[in-house]
Write a structure and sequence with these properties.
The protein is α/β, with parallel strands linked by helices. It has 6 domains: about 55 residues; about 70 residues, Winged helix-like DNA-binding domain superfamily/Winged helix DNA-binding domain (Arc Repressor Mutant, subunit A), CATH 1.10.10.10; about 140 residues; about 110 residues, PTS-regulatory domain, PRD; about 90 residues, 3-Layer(aba) Sandwich (Rossmann fold), CATH 3.40.50.2300; about 140 residues, Mannitol-specific EII, Chain A, CATH 3.40.930. It is about 55% helix and about 10% strand. It contains 25 helices and 15 strands. The strands form 5 sheets. The protein has a 4-stranded parallel sheet, covered by helices on one side. Strand 4 and strand 5 form a beta hairpin. This is LicABCH operon regulator. InterPro entries: BglG_antiterminators (IPR050661), PRD (IPR011608), PRD_sf (IPR036634), PTrfase/Anion_transptr (IPR016152), PTS_EIIA_type-2_dom (IPR002178), WH-like_DNA-bd_sf (IPR036388). One of its GO terms (biological process) is regulation of DNA-templated transcription.
C-alpha cells in the first residue's frame, strides 16, 4: 500500500506539473503531511542521486526523473511486482510451479507465497482460468486465449495510465522475450503499412495491437500457438493478417500460424484502425442493429443535453466505432485510453454525454463498457461539438488605432492573422478621441491609453508583437472564464441552500454519501427515492469524481421538481471511485433547467479543479454561509 501511495503521489505531481503543498497532497491521497514527506524521500531514493520530486518553499513538484522513479525498484520490489512475476511463472509453466522453490526465488516465505496465490485467484475472476493446487505444486488451467488475455491485463497494469511503455511490456513478457528495441520499429512499420493501404490508424489502439503481437510471438516461441479458426476472414482480414505476419517475422523473428494471424488481424481491425477512411466509411459495412441503436441513442442524447450531435456523418462514424467495440467485447479485448482521466476532468459535460450514450448502447446491444471505452465515445462527441462550438467561443473586439496612412488596416490584418481563432474584430476606431463609452465589444485593443482601464481593455503596439498577442489571448481567456463563472454564481445562488449542506462525510462510502445527501433533497420534495437509486446506478456506470477533489453524483434524466444541489464537505478526504475527494455535490436537475445543466456542471467542475481553491473552500467552509462566501470569493477571483 505504501508503494502504491508513493506512485499515486508521483502521478498527481507529474500530471499537474505545478507546485503543491504537503497538506494539499495529503488530502488528495488520504494520509498525513508527515507521510507525504516520507513518500518524497522514498521516491527520491529510487533514482538517487537524481531527483524524482523537487522540494521548495511552495511545496513539491515532479522532477525530470519522475517517470524513471515509477518504473524503478526491480521485479519483486513490491507486492504487485511479486504478484505479476508469480503469474508470469504460472503462465510459463504448463506443468505448474513448485511453491517452495518459487518462494525461494522470490526471497519470501512459503506463507507469503500462499497469500500471493490467494491474490492470484482473485485476479482470475471472469478470466476462464483456474488456479489448481496439489501438495507443493500450483498450476493454471484454461484456454490459450484466456492466458493471453491475462498477460494483456498484466501489461496494462504495468503501463502507466495506458501509455505505450516498451520497458513495461518487456517486464510483463519476461527478460527472455524480444528486446524492447524491436517493438518501436514494429509499431512504426505497422502504422505505415496500414496507412498505405488506405486505413486511418488509431495511435491509441495500435499500441495495444503491438502488445498483442508481442504476446503472440512470445507464446508461439514457447510452442503455444492458437488453433486455426474454422472459417477464413474477408479480404480486409486476410490483408491485415498478411501484414502482421510479415512484420512479426521481420522484427521479432517468429513465424505466426494461421490461428494467431487471424486473431491478431481481428484485433487490429477493431482496435488500431479508426472509422472514417475510404475503406471503412461505407455505410453498407454497418450491421443494421448497431446503426439503429446508435441513431436512437444519439437522438436521445441530443434532446436530453441540448447538444448538436444528431448528424448523419457523426452517427455513421460512431456506429462504425461501436461495431468494432462489439467485436472487441466478444473477444474481451478492451482498448485502453491514456486520455480518459484528462477528458473526464477537462470536459465533464462531454464525458457525461458519452456516459449517457454508453448506457443506451448497453441497454440495446448488451455491450459492457469501461471508462476507457466511454472515453473513446467522448472523443467522438467532443470532435462533433468542437465543430459547432468554435464560433461560440469567439469574442468580439474593437481596435482603437488613430489614423495614419494605412496603419490601422495593417494592424487589423495582423490581429486577424494572429488572433483569428480567439477574437473577431467587428470595428476599428481611427479617432484619437473615440467615444470610449459607446464601445461595447468584449475586448478593446488600443494603441493609445484608454480612460476606462479593465480586464477587457488591452494596450497593444501599432505593429503587433508576440507579447501583444499573448496579452490579448490572456485577456480573452479571463473574459471567457469570468462570464462562465458569473453564470455559475447566479445559478448556485438559486440552487443551493443551508438545509442541503453537510460538513463531515467521513466514514461513508459512495453509496452512503449519495443516500445521505439525496435524503436532504428528498426531504425538500425536490426528488424521490427512485432518483437516489438512479443516482447510485449512474455512479456504478462511471465514477463521477471528475477531479482529484470533487465528485458530482447525479441521475441520468432530469426528473427533479426543481433544480437543487446538496453539498457535502469531507475533511480529511474520502475514497471515491478509485481516488479521493473532499467535496461531493449531488445535483438534481428539473426538465425546465436543461440549459442550465451545462453551465452548472462544467463550471462547477472547473472551480474545483484548482487545488488552492479547493483548500480555501474546504478549510474555511465551517458552515453553509462560509461555504457560499468562499465559493463566491473564488469565482470572483
Amino acid at each position: 500500500m505504501t508503494r502504491a501511495r508513493q506512485d499515486r503521489l508521483l502521478g498527481l505531481l507529474s500530471r499537474d506539473g505545478d507546485w503543491a503543498t504537503a497538506s494539499t497532497l495529503a488530502d488528495a491521497i488520504g494520509v498525513t503531511p508527515r507521510s507525504i514527506r516520507s513518500y518524497v524521500t522514498a521516491l527520491n531514493a529510487r533514482v538517487a542521486p537524481s531527483l524524482a520530486v523537487e522540494s521548495g518553499p511552495q511545496g513539491y513538484r515532479a522532477a525530470p526523473d519522475a517517470a524513471l522513479a515509477l518504473r524503478a525498484g526491480g521485479d519483486a520490489a513490491t507486492p504487485r511486482d511479486r504478484l505479476h512475476r508469480l503469474v508470469r511463472a504460472l503462465l510459463d509453466a504448463p506443468d505448474g510451479i513448485d511453491v517452495f522453490e518459487t518462494a525461494d526465488a522470490l526471497f519470501v516465505s512459503s506463507a507469503t507465497l500462499d497469500a500471493d496465490l490467494s491474490r492470484v485467484r482473485g485476479l482470475l475472476g471472469g478470466t476462464e482460468l483456474v488456479l489448481e493446487r496439489s501438495a507443493s505444486r500450483a498450476r493454471l488451467t484454461g484456454t490459450e486465449v484466456a492466458q493471453r488475455r491475462l498477460l494483456s491485463r498484466l501489461a496494462h497494469d504495468e503501463m502507466d495510465a495506458g501509455s505505450f511503455d516498451l520497458a513495461a511490456l518487456r517486464r510483463t513478457l519476461g527478460e527472455g522475450s524480444a528486446g524492447a528495441e524491436a517493438f518501436g520499429p514494429l509499431k512504426s512499420d505497422l502504422a505505415a503499412r496500414l496507412s498505405a493501404h488506405g486505413w486511418f490508424v488509431n495511435e491509441y489502439g495500435i499500441a495495444d495491437a503491438v502488445m498483442h503481437i508481442a504476446i503472440a510471438a512470445d507464446r508461439v516461441g514457447q510452442g503455444r500457438p492458437l488453433e486455426a479458426p474454422m472459417g477464413t476472414g474477408d479480404a480486409a482480414h486476410d490483408e491485415v493478417a498478411a501484414i502482421v505476419g510479415e512484420l512479426a517475422e521481420q522484427h521479432l523473428d517468429v513465424r505466426l500460424g494461421t490461428g494467431d494471424l487471424q486473431h491478431l488481424a481481428t484485433l487490429v481491425l477493431t482496435r488500431a484502425i479508426a472509422p472514417g477512411a475510404a475503406s471503412t466509411s461505407d455505410r453498407s459495412r454497418l450491421e443494421p442493429d448497431v446503426e439503429t441503436a446508435v441513431r436512437e441513442v444519439v437522438g436521445l442524447a441530443a434532446s436530453e443535453f441540448l447538444v448538436d450531435i444528431a448528424h448523419d456523418d457523426f452517427i455513421t462514424r460512431l456506429a462504425l466505432h461501436v461495431q468494432n467495440l462489439r467485436h472487441r467485447a466478444r473477444e474481451q479485448a478492451w482498448s485502453r485510453n491514456p486520455l480518459t482521466r484528462s477528458l473526464k476532468s477537462t470536459y465533464p459535460m462531454i464525458f457525461e454525454v458519452a456516459v449517457f450514450i454508453a448506457s443506451g448502447l448497453h441497454e440495446r446491444l448488451g455491450i459492457p463498457l469501461l471508462d476507457d471505452e466511454i472515453a473513446y465515445i467522448a472523443m467522438h462527441v467532443g470532435g462533433r461539438l468542437e465543430r459547432s462550438r468554435r464560433s461560440d467561443q469567439l469574442l468580439t473586439a474593437t481596435i482603437v488605432c488613430p489614423g495614419y496612412y494605412e496603419l490601422h488596416e495593417l494592424l487589423r490584418s495582423s490581429v486577424d492573422r494572429s488572433l483569428g481563432q480567439a477574437v473577431e474584430v467587428v470595428g476599428v476606431e481611427t479617432r484619437v478621441d473615440p467615444d470610449w463609452a459607446s464601445i461595447d465589444t468584449d475586448l478593446v485593443l488600443t494603441t493609445i491609453d484608454a480612460p476606462m482601464p479593465g480586464d477587457r481593455v488591452v494596450r497593444i503596439q501599432p505593429f503587433l508583437t508576440d507579447a501583444d498577442v499573448e496579452r490579448v489571448q490572456s485577456a480573452a481567456a479571463r473574459v471567457r472564464r469570468g462570464r462562465r463563472l458569473a453564470r455559475l454564481r447566479g445559478e448556485l445562488e438559486r440552487y443551493v441552500d443551508a438545509s442541503a449542506f453537510v460538513r463531515g462525510l467521513n466514514g461513508d462510502d459512495e453509496e452512503g454519501v449519495i443516500r445521505r445527501l439525496g435524503g436532504l433533497l428528498v426531504a425538500q420534495g425536490v426528488i424521490d427515492a427512485d432518483y437516489v437509486d438512479r443516482t447510485i446506478e449512474r455512479e456504478r456506470l462511471s465514477s463521477t469524481a471528475f477531479t482529484d477533489a470533487l465528485a458530482v453524483p447525479h441521475a441520468m434524466g432530469m426528473t427533479a421538481t426543481r433544480t437543487a444541489i446538496a453539498i457535502g464537505i469531507a475533511d480529511p478526504s474520502i475514497a471515491w471511485g478509485g481516488g479521493r475527494v473532499q467535496v461531493v455535490a449531488l445535483v438534481a436537475f428539473s426538465e425546465t433547467d436543461r440549459e442550465a445543466f451545462q453551465t452548472v456542471f462544467e463550471q462547477f467542475v472547473e472551480v474545483f479543479s484548482e487545488r488552492d481553491s479547493v483548500q480555501r473552500i474546504v478549510r474555511r467552509a465551517v458552515d453553509f454561509g462560509g461555504f457560499l462566501d468562499e465559493l463566491v470569493a473564488v469565482i470572483d477571483g
